[in-house]
Amino acid sequence: MPRKPRGFTLVELLVVIVIIGVLVALLLPAVQAAREAARRARCGNNLRQLGIGLHNYHCVYDCFPPGYLADANTYKAPHWSWSTALLPYLEQQPLYGVLGVGTLTFGNGASMAPPSPATQTPLSVFTCPSDTGPALNASKGGHAKSNYRAILGSQGSTTDNYTTITTANGVFYLNSCTTTTAITDGTSVTLAVGECSLDPTGQTYIGTLWAGMRGSDSQYVYTSDAMWWINSDPLYCINGTAPQAFSSRHPGGAHFVFADGSVHFLQESIDGQTLERLACRNDGQPVGSF
Predict the structure, then answer these.
(1) pLDDT (tens place) for every residue of the chain, 290 residues total
(2) Minimal CA–CA distance to 282: which of 265, 255, 256, 259?
(3) Phi, psi angle pair for 148, to nearest 5°
(4) How far apart, in whole angstroms, are the C-alpha atoms of residue 275 and residue 230?
(5) Which of 73, 127, 215, 229 is 20 to 30 Å from 206 at the Cα level?
């Protein structure tokens, strides 16, 4: 007599489910790793675009853009920054025009530069795909966030002294007009811009913004809106403990674009002396492997 076809037993069905669960568990880390690798590649490409923009600016003005421009009487007021100056070289000429850079002051001169629809425009070239922070940076006045901050140098200071901010040893500082020839240590071994993440809870890293430097409160000039120090101090090293530290959501380190336009992923375990020499443009010290 022919046998009637039968379906799976409950035990067989459970075995199949267990096997599928094991396969998913094995594949999920690989999928997540692949996605992070893609996000990390896009982040590196953002910094390459910034490097190209910096060199296009240099071709026009014979120097890199300033961290921001101000005199001794106005340096604590809001100002456009290096990243705003790059907008025409990042295919953002219309936004540059709407902002009125060159004719208007950031925030129309108001204290701490309140946001506008233009300064709240998210720009993908300034956003790391791996960063989990919101599009608007509440830690920086509600302007659109940026995950890329310029290198002020290696000295490390929270001072609001005009002379100190205008004599930093990095590529970008107050009133800087750094030429490639002024980077005497070599453009291939001098940091220009690096990653800074934004903690969505506001408890650790405060990220930055692309629109400019908002000004000052009763204690500090908010130079971290545009640029900051990096060195071997646990506060200011890569993924350091300071809220302004250069940091990323990529495991183990962060991306940086160098003054020659090249992009490197620097490990958070990098030798402190090497990191400080990379941050300085003119100390005359040899830089080891990194």
Answers:
(1) 555 556 667 777 777 787 787 777 776 666 666 788 899 999 999 999 999 999 999 999 999 999 999 999 999 999 999 999 999 999 999 999 999 998 999 999 888 999 999 999 999 999 999 999 999 999 999 999 999 999 999 987 766 789 888 999 999 999 999 999 999 999 999 999 999 999 998 789 999 999 999 999 877 899 999 999 999 999 999 999 999 999 999 999 999 999 999 999 999 999 999 999 999 999 999 998 89
(2) 259
(3) -130, 120
(4) 8
(5) 73
In this structure, is the dihedral angle defined by the CA atoms of residues 141, 130, 64 and 52, taken in order, positive or negative? Answer: negative
Instruction: For residue 34, give the amino acid letter.
Output: A
> Residue 58 corresponds to which tokens in the numbers above?
């240099």
- Is 226:150 a contact under the CB 8 Å cutoff? yes
pTM of the model: 0.89
